[in-house]
Amino acid sequence: MNTLLLGVGNLLLSDEGVGVRTIEALEQRFRFPDEVVLQDGGTSGMELMEVMANRDLLVVVDAVQSESAPGSLFILEDNDVPAYFTERLSPHQLGLADVLMALHMTDEFPRKLILLGIEPASLAPGMCLSPVVACAMEAAMAKVIHILDNHGIHATALENDRVR
């Protein structure tokens, strides 16, 4: 299954970088089958179109404000993802929404799109995640592994490491 795990966000704004940090941690702690690509999307927009196009499964991890408690996780799927981004936009989400719209228009939209959103506690300048979001990142990694398992994709925890 042609799969992309994409973390997006701004590492300079504390919890805004949780999507990228989650993908980095997954890459450090797991071995994935060859058909799974892990990508730091940062704050890129249309530059991601080629890497996102025609995926069987695209999982996006991002800090998304949903008016939930900090550290809350939520999942949106398929067409609910671009619809959500039209309502709540950070600058990088605007770019992501544009990419998703372009993929629809070119018939390259992923067969399955899942957004794993993490409610930030702080968007203040800084390189560290808040404690509540750092804890939520562990749950987000477990959720990503579960999503992959549900799609028949099995990651292997590297020696002496597992998601808590």
Descriptive account of the structure:
The protein is of the alpha/beta class and 164 residues long. It has one domain (3-157): 3-Layer(aba) Sandwich (Rossmann fold), CATH 3.40.50. 36% of the residues lie in helices and 22% in strands. The chain has five helices and seven strands. It has helices at residues 18-29, 49-52, 80-87, 91-105, 131-150; strands at 3-8, 30-31, 36-42, 57-63, 73-77, 112-118, 156-157. It has a five-stranded mixed beta sheet, with helices on both faces. A two-stranded antiparallel ribbon has the order 2-7. Helix 1 (18-29) packs across helix 5 (131-150). The radius of gyration is 15 Å and the shape is globular. The model has no long low-confidence stretch (mean pLDDT 89).
Secondary-structure blueprint:
Layout: E1 3-8, H1 18-29, E2 30-31, E3 36-42, H2 49-52, E4 57-63, E5 73-77, H3 80-87, H4 91-105, E6 112-118, H5 131-150, E7 156-157
Parallel strand pairs: 1-3, 1-4, 4-6
Antiparallel strand pairs: 2-7, 5-6
Structural class: alpha/beta
Q: What's the arrangement of strands in the largest beta sheet?
A: 3-1-4-6-5
What radius of gyration results from the CA coordinates?
Answer: 15 Å
The SSE string, one letter per element, is EHEEHEEHHEHE
Number of helical stretches of at least 4 residues: 5
Write down the overall mean pLDDT.
Answer: 89
- State the CATH superfamily name: HybD-like
Percent of sequence in beta strands: 15-25%
Helix content: 25-40%
Segments where pLDDT lies below 50 for 5+ residues? Answer: none
Q: Can you tell me the CATH topology?
A: Rossmann fold
- Number of DSSP E strands: 7
What is the architecture at the second tier of CATH? Answer: 3-Layer(aba) Sandwich
- Integer count of domains: 1
Largest sheet: 5 strands, mixed
In CATH, what is the class?
Answer: Alpha Beta
Distance linking N and C termini: 26 Å
Shape: globular
